Amino acid sequence: MTSFRAEHRRRTEAALREQLAGAVVTEADLARLPGLVAAHVRRSGAVGHPRVVSFRARVHGRIRAGSTAPWMTFTGEQVNTCGPQPSRVFIMKARMFGLPVDVLHVFAGPAASMRVRLCSLVPMVNAAGPDLRRAETVTVFNDLCVLAPAALVDAAVVWDAVDDDTRARRPLHRRPAAPHPGRGPMART
C-alpha cells in the first residue's frame, strides 16, 4: 500500500514536469474575459507578470466532520496545475480522537477522488464519482480565483454573460463542442 505522502509527491512531480512557462499576462489577454473577471485579474497585479502554469499552497486550520463534531486542527499542502489540463493534488494531516488521519484529494483528467486513512493504514473513506468531481471542480475553480487569479487568463472556462455581474457557469473538465482558444477540458460540466 502506497502512502498518501508518496502518492502526493509522485503526482505532484508528474504534473509539474508537464508544465511549461509561458508569456506574460497582457491587457489584451484581459480583453477576452468578462469585465468583472478582467478587473479582478488586473487588481491581483498579474498584468506584466508571467502566466501562472502551477502553484503550491500550504494551509492550516480547523475542520470538523459534521456540525456537532469536535474541531480538528489540520495542515495541508496542495499543488495545482493550470491551463488546458488542470489538476489538483491535496494532502491533509489531522488528528481525530487523538489518532492521525491522512486525507488525499486528487483532481486529474476527468476524475476526482478523496481517500481517508486512519493511522496511514486503515481506510475510512474512498470516494469518487460525478458528485465528487463536481465538488472538486468547484474547489479548483475557487483556487484559481482566490490563489492564482492570473491563471483565469488561460483557464478553459466558458464565460456566460448572465447579467452585468457576469458569472462563470459550469467550468472545468468537459470539452466544448468546438475548440476555441482559452477553452478546453475545463469547459462545461
Write the layout of secondary structure elements.
Blueprint: H1 4-17, H2 27-30, H3 35-43, E1 54-63, E2 72-81, E3 87-96, E4 99-108, E5 111-118, E6 122-128, H4 130-147, E7 159-160, E8 167-168
Antiparallel strand pairs: 1-2, 2-3, 3-4, 4-5, 5-6, 7-8
Biased composition (Low complexity): 180-189
Pfam family, one: DUF6544
Region (Disordered): 169-189
Explain the overall architecture.
The C terminus is likely disordered. 28% of the residues are buried. The longest helix has 18 residues. 24% of the residues lie in helices and 31% in strands. A hairpin with an 8-residue loop joins β1 and β2. Strands 1-2-3-4-5-6 form a six-stranded antiparallel beta sheet, with helices on both faces. The chain has a two-stranded antiparallel ribbon with strand order 7-8. The chain is of the alpha+beta class. The chain has one domain. InterPro entries: DUF6544 (IPR046674).
Write a concise synopsis of the structure shown.
The chain has 189 residues and is an alpha+beta fold. It has one domain (4-61, 73-168).
